[in-house]
Specification:
Elements: E1 10-17, E2 20-27, H1 51-57, E3 62-63, H2 65-75, H3 82-86, E4 92-95, E5 100-103, E6 120-123, E7 138-139, E8 142-143, H4 144-153
Parallel strand pairs: 1-4, 5-6
Antiparallel strand pairs: 1-2, 2-3, 4-5, 7-8
């Protein structure tokens, strides 16, 4: 992994492009899709027509589901509160094929308001649409985020 998640700065993002699911850990600024970003490789609007160029540029930030699972399992005992867990939860879902953008960004920054024309942008829980084999938080049938929530809330 080139970057480690950092709360509200370095995000875990799920991407669908050409029918393929991928995870990325990147800086948050990349994901304001319809705003020209200085550090987005000259791509003014990130959409279905510019996605391939963009994803080629961030290939070093791509991570496998197994890497994410391993990271979460390794850190499990180090978590002191559920706040520690938040940075390891997926924050953004971008489906370039269907022109859908969902955000679960935990701070008052509305990524979903910055989508290209013709796209759906919503603040929405997208975990249930992540393919089962890509749900890195499911380990041996246990939902680690739920288990950690219960552990820290005393449920």
């Amino acid at each position: 992994m080139k970057l480690m998640p950092e709360y509200a700065q370095i995000l875990i993002v799920g991407v669908v492009f050409n029918g393929t699911w991928s995870w990325y850990i990147t800086e948050r600024e990349y994901w304001f899709l319809n705003i020209e970003m200085e550090d987005r490789f000259g791509i003014e609007v990130l959409n279905e027509t510019t996605a391939e160029t963009f994803l080629d540029q961030i290939v070093d930030y791509k991570v496998s589901t197994s890497e994410l699972t391993e990271m979460l399992v390794d850190l499990n005992s180090a978590f002191q509160s559920f706040d520690d867990v938040l940075e390891y939860m997926p924050t953004i879902y971008v489906n370039f094929d269907d022109r859908i953008f969902y955000s679960l960004f935990p701070e008052p920054m509305s990524f979903e308001d910055y989508v290209p024309k013709g796209w759906v942008g919503e603040y929405k829980d997208f975990y249930n649409i992540v393919p089962d084999q890509e749900q890195y938080w499911i380990v041996d049938g246990d939902h680690l985020f739920d288990c950690l929530w219960k552990r820290f809330k005393g449920v």
